[in-house]
Amino acid sequence: MATIASADEQGRLDRLRSYAAFGAPLDHGLANLTDLVAYVCRTPIALLNFVEEDRVWVRAGRGLDLTEAPRDAMMCPHTIRDRGPLIVPDLSADPRFASTRFVAGDPHVRFYAGAPLVTGDGYAIGTLCVLDYEPRALDEAQIGALVTLAVHAMAWLDLQRTTATLQTVIDQCADGIVIVDEHGNVEMNAAAIHQLGADGQRCVGALPVGMTVDGEALRPAEAPVQRALRGELIRDYRWQLPRPGGGRLVLSVSAAPLHRHDLRRGGAVLILRDQTERSRLEQEVEESRDEVRVLLESTGEGIYGIGPDGRCTFVNPAAVRMLGYDRAGELLGRYMHDVVHHTTRDGQHIARSECRLHDTRSPGVHVLDDVLRRRDGSVLPVEIWSSPVLRRGRHVGCVVTFVDVSERKRVEHERERALNEAQEALHARDEFLSIAAHELRTPVTALQLQTQSIMRQARVRDSLPPPVATRLDLVLRQGERLEKLINQLLDVSRIATHRLELETEDIDLVALVREVVTRYEPQARSAGCALSLDAPAELRGCWDRSRLEQVVTNLLSNATKYGRGRPVEVSVREEAGDREVAVLTVRDHGIGISLEDQTRIFERFERATYGRDYAGLGLGLYIARQIVEASGGRIEVQSETGQGSAFRVVLPRACGSKIPGPT
């Protein structure tokens, strides 16, 4: 059977749970009601059910040993949906119920009649129903009785809930509650039992008599409970009782007589509030005030108070000293703004109406760098706080706290000077690198040209001995390496001075990468690395050709250096789901990069691994990142130690475009 839900099923369930205690013992009052409805309707079975989300709980019943059942096994969900009495003469003939558990199987019920239990705000939380093992019908009187008894059942549940709520309030109340009935029997909540040191139930004559707040013994007839039983209304009566362990308990007592339904007095109720704790707290507050007073007088921070009129109400010794005065009386009663905060550091006047620091209506102010004026007119650099003072939600003043930051200002000045010197040194270093790289480039280029010329002439004449040819080839390779290092230094200099410029044009990234891979194959073979390229026929975009060649070359150089003896795979693809983005990936299977090193390898002069086999300045990835980011893209690495590395270059294909960083 499909689940049947009301329009506000969650609200119905919330209301149900405010009534129901699932799994609690069956309620005898409701059991009597189910006996009555079974008798009126002449049925062997009568149940009062709560319909939960997936279960039906039996809170009272007769004729069927059942405490709960799956919701789809019962007829009650249909009853709460229709909000009226549901009569099914023959369940086995009704397609809604014929195959349900209790019809098709044991106990094979055939007849059902139910009325919903509806709360005052219109939620149907359950049913009162009758069942029979034979098909049958109810007359109008029986149906009316079923509906009426469902209303009475709901009233009984409301009474139970109200009673339980009231009992919970009484039990949880911090004040003692004593109820005396007309026969002198006493009931007390837990707080009263604790206060009076008595049992939970006893007779009124056994309650302590106590004494007045002044310690005078009371006569029994003058005890608060006896006065309330005589019809007297008592408010905030001070009552003392001896404590079992010594000392006295001070209570504030309010009492009133109780009346029966015929308006005759029928007992009394007493509310007992423990004033001993309040007295202790008042004493602690006074002690705290003394501690605060000592703290204000001993702290090194300057503190003064401002009243609602802007005048000084208190000032601690530290503030007196830092402001250059001899005693607090010289500041008390004066407008503190006019005394210490009337001008800025450079002498500009501050109007009292514009001073947020001494505005007693302000929610609070914190200024890291401010000044106060000393008695002699000199400037006191301070960090200062102003906090409002509230009384019953109203601003009645503020407390101003300040610390002397003269030493901090001196340290900040020294730090700023050191920072400027460091920046100047870095600038000088960058200038030196730029000049040195330019000066070195000319002789290195000349050396390469001369070496190449000698080798060409010697080969033409066939007069170059093999040992000399080998050495000249070594000189040429070392010159190329030196030229690469010089070019890297020049690039770093351009980046540092923001002179790295791109000359973009429409190019085919696949052709460019294929050309670099082909050119780099001899070096890869010498490192024992097999190069492979996986790319489409063409992938065009707006980029700087020479700079992209530099990026690809740097990545291939690193891949063969750190993945020596293992294959290197290069791929070019469109980004998945975005045809306007190109992705170049260079993957090696070498030593890999630890997670902590991955955060620094793109910085200047940083390398993940050091040693003779991994020589270099640590500039290749730094320059590659600067080029890629200048192109509007990003470069990222995925690697684990010993598992190789994959560098991804993600580039926008359109000129001037920029892609977001990784999420």
Can you lay out the helices and strands and say which pair or pack?
Elements: H1 9-19, H2 28-41, E1 45-51, E2 55-62, E3 68-70, H3 76-82, E4 86-88, H4 101-104, E5 111-118, E6 124-132, H5 140-172, E7 176-181, E8 185-188, H6 190-196, E9 201-203, E10 211-212, H7 224-229, E11 234-242, E12 248-259, E13 265-274, H8 275-298, E14 302-306, E15 312-315, H9 317-322, H10 336-340, E16 365-373, E17 379-391, E18 394-404, H11 406-461, H12 466-496, E19 505-508, H13 509-526, E20 531-534, E21 540-543, H14 545-562, E22 568-575, E23 578-587, H15 595-598, H16 620-630, E24 634-639, E25 645-652
Helix pairs in contact: 2-5, 11-12, 12-16, 13-14, 14-16
Percentage of residues in DSSP E strands: 25-35%
| Fraction of residues in helix | 25-40%
User: For the largest beta sheet, what order do the strands appear in spatially?
Assistant: 9-8-7-13-12-11-10
Q: Residue ranges: pLDDT <50 for 5 or more in a row?
A: 1-5
SS content category: alpha+beta
Number of helices: 16
Keywords, please?
six-stranded antiparallel beta sheet, single chain, 25 strands, flat, seven-stranded antiparallel beta sheet, 663 residues, disordered N terminus, 16 helices, alpha+beta
Structural account:
With 663 residues, this protein is of the alpha+beta class. Strand 7 (176-181) and strand 8 form a beta hairpin.
Q: What is shown here, in short?
A:
This protein has 663 residues and is α+β, with helices and mostly antiparallel strands.
